[in-house]
Specification:
- By secondary structure, the protein is α/β, with parallel strands linked by helices.
- The protein folds into two domains: about 5-130 and about 320-335, NAD(P)-binding Rossmann-like Domain (Rossmann fold, 3-Layer(aba) Sandwich), CATH 3.40.50; about 130-315, Dihydrodipicolinate Reductase, domain 2 (2-Layer Sandwich).
- It has nine helices and 14 strands.
- The strands form three sheets. The chain has a six-stranded parallel beta sheet, sandwiched between helices. The protein has a six-stranded mixed beta sheet with strand order 10-9-11-14-13-12. A two-stranded antiparallel ribbon has the order 3-4.
- Helix 8 links the parallel strand 12 and strand 13.
- Helix 4 packs across helix 6 and helix 4 crosses helix 7.
- The radius of gyration is 20 Å and the shape is globular.
- The protein binds 5'-O-monophosphoryladenylyl(2'->5')adenylyl(2'->5')adenosine (25A) and trans-cyclohexane-1,4-dicarboxylic acid.
- 5'-O-monophosphoryladenylyl(2'->5')adenylyl(2'->5')adenosine binds near residues 15, 78, 160 and 161.
Length: about 325
C-alpha cells in the first residue's frame, strides 16, 4: 500500500464525513496529512483525528493542492461542482453522492463484489447508494450460488440516511410530542416520529422514486448483470441508524435454505443471524455502529419458483457510506 497520503474529506462535519475520519483512523489508513473540508458554516471548527484536533477548512477551488485521495460526502451538487477540480489537481476522488454513479467512465464499487473495477478509474470512483450496498452484500453471494433473475423488496431506511439533519428532525419531533407541543417539520414532507413514510428521494414519471430505481440500475452495474430486475418500495422509518431490507428473490437454479445459509456464512462483510427459535434476526438497533451487515429470516419463498425471501440489515453510514468509501480508497492506495 502507498504510504504518506494526503487525504481530503469533503463534508467532514456531516453524519458520513465524521465516520469517514473515524474509519480512516480505525483501519490505519496511511494518512500523512488530513484536510477536513466543509461549508463556510463549519470553517474553523475542529474535528478529532488520531487524538489531535484538526481544523475544518472551507471547501474552495484551491482545496486540493497536493491531495492524493479526496473522499466526498457533501451531496451531489457539491460533487458535481468540485470533484472535477479535485481530479484536475491530481487527486483520485471517491464520491459518496449519486452524481457520477451511472457514468460509464466511473466504476461503482462494493469491494467485496467488484474490487477489480477500481483499476478502471479515470479519476473518480463512485460509492453506491446505501440501501443498494446492504442489499447486494447478501444478494451477490446468493447470486453466485443460484443465479439471480429478479427481486421484489421493501426498504426500512433510517433517518440518518438524510444526514445530520434527518437525525435532528426525529429527535426534535419526539421531544415535541413528549412535551405536548405542535410537531415541526423541516426535512420530511410528513411527521416521521411514530410514523412510516413510503417516500425516499424524489418521485419519477414511472411512479417509483429515484431511490427505488437506484436499486435497479446500481445493482446491475455492481453485480455486472444488465438484465437484473428489481421492483422496490423505499420506506423511511423512525430508526436513527441502519437500513433494513425485506427481499424476495427469484433465481435460475433450485434453492435451499441450508445452502443459502452456508453461502451467507462464507461471504465476506456479512454475517448470518438466523435463529428464529430464539428470536434471532438482524435488528437495526444492534447493527448501528457495526462494520458487517447481517442476513436472517432466510426461507424458501412460497409464491415463486426457485425463490428465497430474506431480511438484510446494515449500518448505512458505515457499510453504506463511510466504510465502503474507505475500503475503495484502500484499493486505490494498493493500485
Ligand atoms: O445529495 P445526496 O447524495 O443525496 O446527499 C445529501 C446528503 O445526504 C447525506 C449527507 O448529509 C449528504 O450531504 N448522506 C449521503 N449519503 C448518506 C448516507 N449513506 C448520507 N447520510 C447518511 N447516510 P450530511 O448532513 O451527513 O453531510 C453534509 C455535509 O456536507 C457539507 N456541506 C454542505 N454544503 C456544503 C458542504 N460542504 C462544502 N460546501 C458546501 N456548500 C456539510 O458541512 C456536511 O459536512 P456543513 O458545514 O454545511 O454542515 C455542518 C452541519 O450543519 C448542518 N447543516 C447542513 N445543512 C444546513 C445545516 N444547518 C443549517 N442550514 C443548512 N442548510 C448539518 O447538521 C451539519 O452537521
Ligand atoms: O443515494 O435517504 O447515497 O436514506 C443515501 C441516503 C440517497 C438517500 C444516496 C437515504 C443517498 C439515502
Amino acid at each position: 500500500m502507498r504510504e504518506d497520503l494526503h487525504v481530503a474529506v469533503v463534508g467532514a462535519t456531516g453524519a458520513v464525513g465524521i465516520e469517514m475520519l473515524k474509519t480512516l483512523e480505525k483501519r490505519n489508513f496511511p494518512v500523512n496529512k488530513l484536510s477536513p473540508l466543509a461549508s463556510a458554516r463549519s470553517a474553523g471548527k475542529t474535528l478529532s483525528f488520531r487524538g489531535e484536533d484538526v481544523a475544518v477548512q472551507e471547501l474552495t477551488r484551491d482545496s486540493f493542492d497536493g491531495v492524493d485521495i479526496a473522499l466526498f460526502s457533501a451531496g451531489g451538487g457539491i460533487s458535481n461542482e468540485f470533484a472535477p477540480t479535485a481530479v484536475e489537481a491530481g487527486a483520485v476522488v471517491v464520491d459518496n453522492s449519486s452524481a457520477f454513479r451511472m457514468d460509464d467512465s466511473v466504476p461503482l464499487v462494493v469491494p467485496e463484489i467488484n474490487a477489480a473495477d477500481v483499476a478502471k478509474h479515470n479519476g473518480i470512483i463512485a460509492n453506491p447508494n446505501c440501501s443498494t450496498i446492504v442489499t447486494v452484500m447478501a444478494l451477490f453471494p446468493l447470486h453466485q450460488a443460484f443465479g439471480v433473475k429478479r427481486i421484489f423488496a421493501s426498504t426500512y431506511q433510517a433517518v440518518s440516511g438524510s444526514g445530520a439533519m434527518g437525525i435532528a428532525e426525529l429527535e426534535r419531533q419526539v421531544g415535541e410530542i413528549a412535551e405536548g407541543e405542535p410537531v415541526s417539520r423541516k426535512v420530511y414532507p410528513h411527521q416521521i416520529a411514530f410514523n412510516v413514510l413510503p417516500h425516499v428521494d424524489e418521485f419519477l414519471d414511472n411512479g417509483y422514486t429515484k431511490e427505488e430505481m437506484k436499486m435497479v440500475h446500481e445493482s446491475r452495474k455492481i453485480m455486472g448483470l444488465p438484465d437484473f430486475l428489481a421492483s422496490v418500495t423505499c420506506v423511511r422509518v423512525p430508526v436513527y441508524r441502519a437500513h433494513s431490507i425485506a427481499v424476495s428473490a427469484e433465481f435460475e437454479k433450485p434453492v435451499s435454505v441450508e445452502h443459502a445459509r452456508e453461502v451467507i456464512n462464507a461471504a465476506p462483510g456479512i454475517d448470518l443471524n438466523d435463529n428464529v427459535a430464539s428470536n434471532g434476526y438482524p435488528l437495526p438497533l444492534e447493527l448501528a455502529g457495526q462494520d458487517n451487515c447481517q442476513a436472517g429470516r432466510i426461507r424458501v419463498d412460497c409464491a415463486m419458483e426457485n425463490g428465497l425471501s430474506f431480511w438484510v440489515a446494515g449500518d448505512q453510514i458505515l457499510k453504506g457510506a463511510a466504510l465502503n468509501t474507505v475500503q475503495i480508497a484502500e484499493e486505490v492506495a494498493n493500485l
